[in-house]
């Protein structure tokens, strides 16, 4: 049994089914997808996502999942997502001739970061900061988990100008948390694994990859079809309420519809805040092993989708704004490549949106439109046809100092019971890749337990 049908649960179920296991997938909500869902908005053709999701060429486990369910053709590969907009006419982005070969084009194109457009006297300190960051990322030190990124940047003398232009937003973009709250260790570990994948031959590790369809069509519907074709049972609207344990061995799983199902193995892929409820109410709470999960806190993301009667003339599919409420403008219509009658759709997002997550929709929308007006002259002429606000207070986990200690491995002290989910041990931030990587590890552990080898394959079948 796999409990929870977010990406971690879907990938675990798909790969277990692929390995020939008889899988039951149980999801508490009425639909599959977890934090990667899409829904219908009245008057809009197709589905709207719960927020723009970006993934990178280094998301190898997620790409493997996409390959297994056969939806790689629904991805749009782009150059690295560095596009900093400091004003209507100023965009710092990849600047290199297109004819240069891939890796060289990226290196040349992003070389401005080494000598960034900040006051000249601060550039040597900026260079030293990059060198310190690179050195720390080479061998992440566990002590960094005692510090926030903000404190660490101060310690290494990162100039304020570099922080304001590049660094702080880079951290927020990677970790969905403010520099004053997030662990320096998480930042450095993230750079470490991206760098490792780049150096191991993945020349597109740092590239952006955009969904060309809704998250539902990319991740969820193909997985559902795959599972049904492989004989899996899918149960929605029913949650796990307790675990049956005898002599530290899993014997069954109790469900909210009153049934108890006997299983050979169960993988719980619930987010930390849902697992905490299970600890409070059920037998798992008796095991100290799970206690750390209670301390994991969520972090919010807020978005407003805006449909305009014309495009804004963006140079990149995603641009990172400075000095406005909105941090990211994503050209959703540009990514999907289809203009609809509803107008040209943009997703305007704020990561770690502590400052705006409680704003009423009208106030947040007004601030978002003001951000657009400040950076895009075309916005002044454009008619706003429709808007749709989505505040997600529990979008990701918040990797505060001490977070390394709170992550649990996929194997548990209870024989036959396993965990997966973006928050479990992977060394990665709260991302779709962490969810998929946790599934790789959980499937491996289940395979060991059941005496089968069940490595996720990288081809669709
Ligand atoms: C707005 C937004 C933007 C994001 N942007 C990005 C991005 O750009 N790039 C990126 O990589 N990541 C991004 N993320 C993060 C990414 O979506 C998550 O890290 C990932 O989807 C987590 O997957 P998961 O399977 O671990 O958890 P979830 O998706 O939360 O899945 C857990 C599932 O368990 C179910 N459940 C809970 N309790 C029970 C129970 N008792 N019984 C059965 N089922 C239960 C839940 O309903 C849920 O479906 C974003 C997230 C949000 C919300």
From TrEMBL:
This is Amine oxidase domain-containing protein. Signal peptide: none annotated. InterPro entries: Amino_oxidase, FAD/NAD-bd_sf, SQase_HpnE, Zeta_carotene_desat/Oxidored. Residues 7-446 form the Amine oxidase domain. It comes from Nocardia mangyaensis. One of its GO terms (molecular function) is oxidoreductase activity. PANTHER family: BLR3003 PROTEIN, PROTOPORPHYRINOGEN OXIDASE.
């Amino acid at each position: 049994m796999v409990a929870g049908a977010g990406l971690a649960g879907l990938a675990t179920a798909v790969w277990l089914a692929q390995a020939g296991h008889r899988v039951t997938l149980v999801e508490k909500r009425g639909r599959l997808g977890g934090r990667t869902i899409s829904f219908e908005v009245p008057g809009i053709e197709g589905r709207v996502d719960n927020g723009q999701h970006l993934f990178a060429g280094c998301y190898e486990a997620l790409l493997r999942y996409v390959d297994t369910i056969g939806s790689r053709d629904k991805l749009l590969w782009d150059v690295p997502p560095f596009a900093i907009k400091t004003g209507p006419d100023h965009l710092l982005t990849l600047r290199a001739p297109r004819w240069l070969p891939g890796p060289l084009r990226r290196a040349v194109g992003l070389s401005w970061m080494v000598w960034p457009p900040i006051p000249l006297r601060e550039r040597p300190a900026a260079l030293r900061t990059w060198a310190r960051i690179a050195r720390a990322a080479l061998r992440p030190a566990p002590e960094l988990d005692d510090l926030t990124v903000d404190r660490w940047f101060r310690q290494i003398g990162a100039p304020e100008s570099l922080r304001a232009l590049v660094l702080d937003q880079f951290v927020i973009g990677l970790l969905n948390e403010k520099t004053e709250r997030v662990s320096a260790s998480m930042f450095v570990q993230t750079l470490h694994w991206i760098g490792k994948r780049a150096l191991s031959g993945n020349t597109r590790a740092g590239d952006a990859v955009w969904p060309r369809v809704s998250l539902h069509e990319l991740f969820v519907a193909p997985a559902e079809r795959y599972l049904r074709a492989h004989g899996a049972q899918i149960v929605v609207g029913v949650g796990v309420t307790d675990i049956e344990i005898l002599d530290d061995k899993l014997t069954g799983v109790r469900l909210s519809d009153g049934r108890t199902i006997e299983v050979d193995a169960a993988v719980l892929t619930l987010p930390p805040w849902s697992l905490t409820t299970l600890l409070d109410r059920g037998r798992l709470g008796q095991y100290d092993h799970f206690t750390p999960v209670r301390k994991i806190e969520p972090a919010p993301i807020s978005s407003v989708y805006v449909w305009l009667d014309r495009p804004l003339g963006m140079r990149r599919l995603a641009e990172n704004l400075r000095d406005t409420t909105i941090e990211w403008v994503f050209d959703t219509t540009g990514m999907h490549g289809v203009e609809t009658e509803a107008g040209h759709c943009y997703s305007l997002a704020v990561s770690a949106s502590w400052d705006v997550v409680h704003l009423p929709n009208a106030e947040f929308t007004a601030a978002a439109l003001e951000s657009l007006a400040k950076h895009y002259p075309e916005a002044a002429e454009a008619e706003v046809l429709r808007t749709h606000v989505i505040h997600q207070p529990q979008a990701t986990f918040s990797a505060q100092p001490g977070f390394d200690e709170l992550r649990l491995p996929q194997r548990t002290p209870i024989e036959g019971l396993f965990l997966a989910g973006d928050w479990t041990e992977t060394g990665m931030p709260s991302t779709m890749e962490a969810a998929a990587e946790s599934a790789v590890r959980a499937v491996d552990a289940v395979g060991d337990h059941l005496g089968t080898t069940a490595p996720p394959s990288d081809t669709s079948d």
